[in-house]
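<goal> How does this chain fold?
<sample>
Here is the protein in question

***
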Amino acid sequence: MIVCPLILALGLLGIGAVALTSPDYIVPPIVSSVGLTCALIGFFDAASISLMVTLASARGRGFGEAVTASEMAVTFGKAAGPAVGVIVADATNFNVLLFVVAAASVMVGAGCIACLRELSGQEKVEVA
């Protein structure tokens, strides 16, 4: 689970590199990047809720609070992501957008590796 953002970053960098070599093809990079993103979200989403529950219970919070916090984060991402994506794509092009999202994924992955290695000092988070 911790490596999903890094897999996304590598995939988007690869798609962006291929798209740079053949600028006439517009649809395949878009379809490939959306497909990769959806596949990784599907892999990561269920595990993230159980991780949120574990983090919440380690801090004395309930299941409802954990799920609410998780859904608020997802909703914020669904709202802010397209807005930022449109701004970046309008200012540059789709390839730059892929590289920006890849860089953000690397930062998220590094944050996950740094912060989620240990829960409350003793419980280990499994790396999927």
